[in-house]
Automatic annotation (TrEMBL):
GO BP annotations, alphabetical order: L-histidine biosynthetic process
Gene transcribed to yield this protein: hisC
Protein name as it appears in the record: Aromatic amino acid aminotransferase
PANTHER family reported for this sequence: HISTIDINOL-PHOSPHATE AMINOTRANSFERASE, HISTIDINOL-PHOSPHATE AMINOTRANSFERASE 2
Purpose of the protein: Aminotransferase that catalyzes the conversion of aromatic amino acids and 2-oxoglutarate into corresponding aromatic oxo acids and L-glutamate.
Catalysed reactions listed for this entry: an aromatic L-alpha-amino acid + 2-oxoglutarate = an aromatic oxo-acid + L-glutamate
Subunit structure: Homodimer.
Modified residue annotations for N6-(pyridoxal phosphate)lysine: K219
Length: 359
């Protein structure tokens, strides 16, 4: 007999792993194409020799390194098994009843609806504006007495769009201070807005105890396979996160690799410059070919192809280019190495492809 499982989990789609064709170019997961730096690889190898020992459950050395880097206290930082784990833990520390509400923009990061449902809370998705940015007015208007948590993904995955500092401040000022606002800045390192306009959640959070910022080692820092992200926020929020943290879920290898990568951040951040040149080149060529492509502040671009997206990614996969469709809205294209981007552009700008996909 099948054991009893929470029936509300039926509404969560089962995980479908991404396809992996041998020889194909993978532009589907917003990963960095480079392997870890030699110093990070060495730290990983050394940590592996202690794999029989549990990791530091408090991740003390990593949190100390992050605190120094960000100019905050250790008590302002929690680490998680990827920032996606912190998303789930943030629902856990704020929502306790099925009537508790989590507000987020949609389309946005696919984990938000899932962690909300896993946390047995009520999702309140707010459609993006016509130019595919967060609709802050509508999000603020959606706040009710039941609202416990708000996710703001800036830059937004999968549209790549970002809102500037002034708009973000106006939004934060409109939200009652007892509601936790999560600024998910997974793509912070790829932002190229002007210094005055650049939204920096850590700065904005210094005077706002209801703001918590999420960043990750998975994207610009190139450690997606090892799993570490971090939250920066008020010590009360951080202390609660540590209570629901799955013990030892941030492993020894990633703690060592993250510290080494932070020390070598100059080199890692230099790589983002090359990526941004490619991002703008890919976008310009797509625009020239007649696509609509919103400006991107991340390491991917978005093609709002609507419900043609799935057919588009099937056609690209047949040409050896793996992209991510988000039915029914469009397709996300990760920026890879120049030769990978060329392969995608060859497909995308092919007149036969342009003729078939008219959006
Ligand atoms: C990739 C991503 C994350 C983090 O991923 P982890 O690998 O779990 O750290 C978080 N938020 C958004 C919006 C992302 O795109």
């Amino acid at each position: 007999m099948i054991p009893h499982i929470r029936p509300d989990l039926d509404s969560i789609p089962a995980y479908v792993p991404g396809r992996n064709h041998p020889g194909a170019v993978k532009l589907a997961s917003n990963e960095t194409t480079f392997g870890p730096l030699p110093s990070a690889a060495k730290a990983i190898a050394e940590a592996a020799e202690l794999a029989n020992r549990y990791p530091d459950n408090q991740a003390g050395d990593l949190r100390t390194a992050l605190a120094e880097f960000l100019g905050v206290e250790v008590t302002n930082i929690a680490v998680g098994c990827g920032s996606v784990a912190l998303c789930q833990e943030l629902v856990q520390i704020t929502c306790a009843a099925p009537t508790d509400e989590v507000v987020y923009a949609w389309r946005s990061f696919e984990a938000y609806p899932i962690v909300t449902k896993v946390g047995n809370a009520k999702a309140v998705p707010i459609p993006l504006t016509a130019d595919l940015t967060h609709d802050f007015d509508a999000m603020a208007a959606a706040v009710t007495e039941h609202t416990k948590l708000i996710f703001v993904c800036n830059p937004n995955n999968p549209t790549g769009t970002a809102l500037g500092r002034a708009e973000l401040i106006r939004f934060l000022d409109a939200i009652p201070s007892h509601i936790l606002v999560v600024l998910d800045e997974a793509y912070f390192e790829y932002l190229r807005l002007t210094p005055e306009d650049r939204p920096d959640g850590v700065e904005l959070g210094r005077t706002r105890p209801n703001v918590v910022v999420l960043r990750t080692f998975s994207k610009a820092y190139g450690l997606a396979g090892l799993r570490a992200g971090y939250a920066v926020g008020d010590p009360a929020v951080i202390a609660a996160l540590m209570k629901v943290h799955i013990p030892f879920s941030v492993n020894r290898l990633v703690q060592a690799a993250a510290i080494a990568s932070l020390e070598a951040r100059g080199e890692l951040l230099d790589r983002t410059e090359t990526l941004i040149v490619e991002r703008e080149r890919v976008r310009d060529e797509l625009l020239a070919a007649g696509y609509r492509v919103p400006p991107s502040e991340a390491n991917f671009v978005w093609l709002p192809l609507g419900d043609q997206g799935v057919a588009y990614t099937e056609a690209s996969a047949a040409e050896g280019v793996l992209l991510r469709a988000y039915a029914p809205d469009g397709v996300r294209v990760t920026i890879g190495d120049p030769h990978e981007n060329d392969r995608f552009l060859r497909f995308a700008t092919d007149p036969a492809v342009r003729g078939r996909f008219t959006a």
